[in-house]
Task: inverse folding
């Protein structure tokens, strides 16, 4: 039986309790930062815990934030469609619209239901692979997401620059594409350093102005077309002369679809910014049905608006613009609708249209930036694969701006040079989303429908990679970069105190409280047979090695290694009795970190510093370091002491570590 639309697999739902995001920065404290600048940068970030709750907005306002990317494709999509399909452009655009409404939209409405906190299809696919395999897979997907979003930012700014330079009123002093693009990127970053409230307000203004001017232009263009039916007749004659029957037209257009696939951009950011969408007052924080419902409204409305504009723009540009003007060097190359705006409505309206196009292309990177600011804090810091400050928004904005500057300089602010990477990132994420939804729905009656959708996206992705292989090469560089920096961060953070909370059951509390008046002596033990003889032998050896008197009570501590790929966890401690021996047992991704956290918890609970006793570990210390970083275990005693040293600067306040 099929699950309801807003349901999700238990594993995903359980993990989806509002995660440590850092989208809010209008409120909050500096998290202990020392300087005024540090407090400002880390505003909203609480040391050792999640950032403050982020603000939410009506779905139609958030649609404008994602729409600056999606709707901005009107600036170049008609020209791309004509260069790819010629007079077949309107038919090819119809195929694009069909894929948008019948494939992309159903897939992403399901993604919204399965990941309402903005994790997207990455969270759905992560569930398929355990431990380090799952983390590695997520890093690869994040690499493609980074490719998509960063190139969206840089390509859109470069395209805005091209429109600025090509405008006849632009002074020649601005004919420096790289410099102008860098300025546009800096202003975009400044908006996000200020706040999401300002970003959404600006997006609303830009989208309303841009769509309004396009509506006026398309109405005038369609009226012009009806006043000159010979243009429509000539197009129809050319269409049938080149392609014959309607069936052959559709088949040819379907094969050309991968070249038009950039018109699908915007769906991934639509679900990535879901935390900004306001839901219902009674929404469950884990599974917010109101937010899911409103995000689906966002996706449907954006797709419907875009479909109407794409079809109308394709028809009028194909029939009213001389074909030679679409070619490189032509006045309609990359700016077909702007060409019509100047030609049909005069230089005044045309210039105003150019300004609105420049504004939306420049701000198209805003939706990508919002997506990055949501995705990165949800995955990398909890994995230990980014510094803790990466959960805050402003430092991430600065990091992404630096990366965008480098990409712009490397590609010389060339739109065409970045197009392959952009398409590869978009299509890979959409294909992965389709795969994730197909797997989630495999046990239902709709599995073959979603399998067919997946086949369409995979075909489009493969065709794009074959035609523009530079895209996958650039994406590979982003993947290598994110994997290498993530592993370095994980290694550098390995000795952090990574336990959020320590919880003792009644038996564990009783054992600790009973020993507290006599001194707390904890023997670290790796159990084997769990027999009385084993604990007798271990206790006798510990007393001999550490010169403990027979009358001094001891407590055994046993940490079972959990999923070492997890970075942080809560510690659930059980009290167990074997014969006369009292034992504390727990499970943790990293054994030394768990021991350190439990010792500190005992200290805080009893007001007395415990003593922990370890045996020497024999073997190659380098191998033990590698085992600890990768597997969470190794030379336990020195690592436990290092964790305590970093967490508690004053030696007199630390639990004492003894090795014998």
Result:
């Amino acid at each position: 039986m099929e699950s309801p639309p807003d349901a999700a697999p238990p594993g995903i739902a359980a993990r989806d309790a509002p995660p440590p995001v850092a989208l809010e920065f209008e409120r909050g404290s500096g998290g202990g930062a020392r300087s005024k600048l540090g407090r400002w940068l880390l505003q909203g970030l609480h040391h050792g815990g999640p950032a403050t709750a982020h603000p939410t907005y009506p779905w139609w306002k958030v649609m404008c934030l994602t729409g600056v990317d999606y709707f901005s494709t009107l600036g170049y999509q008609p020209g791309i469609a004509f260069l790819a399909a010629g007079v077949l452009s309107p038919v090819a655009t119809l195929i694009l619209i069909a894929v948008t409404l019948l494939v992309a939209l159903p897939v992403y409405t399901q993604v919204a239901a399965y990941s309402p906190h903005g994790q997207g299809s990455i969270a759905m696919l992560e569930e398929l692979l355990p431990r380090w395999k799952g983390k590695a897979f997520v890093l690869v997907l994040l690499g493609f997401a980074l490719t998509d979003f960063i190139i969206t930012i840089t390509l859109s700014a470069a395209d805005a620059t091209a429109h600025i330079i090509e405008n006849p009123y632009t002074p020649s002093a601005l004919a420096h594409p790289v410099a102008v693009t860098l300025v546009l990127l800096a202003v975009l970053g400044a908006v996000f350093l200020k706040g999401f409230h300002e970003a959404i307000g600006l997006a609303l203004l830009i989208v309303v102005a841009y769509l309004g001017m396009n509506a006026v232009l398309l109405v005038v263009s369609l009226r012009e077309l009806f006043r000159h039916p010979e243009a429509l007749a000539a197009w129809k004659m050319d269409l049938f002369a080149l392609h014959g029957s309607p069936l052959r037209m559709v088949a040819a257009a379907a094969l050309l679809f991968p070249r038009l696939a950039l018109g699908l951009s915007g769906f991934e950011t639509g679900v990535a910014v879901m935390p900004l969408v306001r839901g219902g007052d009674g929404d469950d924080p884990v599974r917010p049905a109101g937010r899911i419902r409103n995000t689906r409204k966002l996706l449907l409305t954006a797709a419907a608006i875009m479909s109407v504009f794409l079809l109308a723009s394709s028809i009028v540009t194909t029939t009213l613009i001389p074909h030679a003007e679409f070619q490189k060097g032509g006045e309609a190359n990359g700016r077909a609708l702007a060409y019509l705006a100047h030609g049909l409505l005069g230089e005044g309206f045309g210039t105003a249209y150019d300004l609105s196009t420049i504004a939306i292309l420049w701000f198209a990177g805003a939706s990508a930036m919002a997506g990055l600011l949501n995705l990165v804090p949800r995955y990398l810091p909890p994995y230990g694969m980014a510094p803790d400050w990466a959960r805050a928004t402003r430092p991430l904005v600065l990091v992404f701006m630096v990366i965008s500057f480098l990409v712009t300089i490397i590609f010389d602010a060339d739109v065409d040079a970045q197009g392959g990477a952009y398409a590869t990132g978009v299509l890979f994420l959409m294909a992965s989303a389709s795969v994730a939804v197909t797997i989630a729905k495999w046990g239902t009656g709709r599995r073959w429908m979603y399998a067919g959708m997946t086949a369409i996206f995979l075909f489009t992705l493969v065709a794009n990679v074959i035609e523009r292989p530079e895209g996958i090469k650039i994406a590979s560089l982003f993947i290598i970069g994110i994997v290498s920096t993530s592993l370095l961060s994980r290694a550098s953070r390995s000795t952090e105190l990574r336990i959020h909370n320590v919880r003792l059951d009644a038996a564990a509390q009783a054992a600790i409280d009973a020993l507290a008046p006599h001194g707390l002596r904890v023997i670290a033990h790796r159990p084997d047979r769990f027999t009385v003889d084993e604990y007798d032998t271990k206790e006798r050896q510990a007393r001999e090695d550490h010169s403990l008197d027979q009358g001094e009570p001891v407590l055994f501590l046993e940490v079972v290694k959990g999923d070492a790929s997890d970075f942080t966890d809560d510690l659930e401690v059980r009290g167990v009795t074997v014969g006369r021996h009292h034992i504390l047992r727990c499970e943790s991704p990293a054994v030394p970190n768990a021991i350190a956290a439990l010792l500190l918890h005992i200290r805080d609970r009893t007001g007395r510093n415990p003593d922990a006793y370890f045996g020497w570990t024999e073997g190659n210390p380098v191998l033990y370091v590698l085992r600890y970083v990768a597997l969470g275990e190794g030379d336990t005693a020195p690592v436990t002491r290092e964790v305590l040293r970093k967490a508690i600067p004053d030696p007199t306040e630390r639990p004492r570590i003894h090795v014998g």
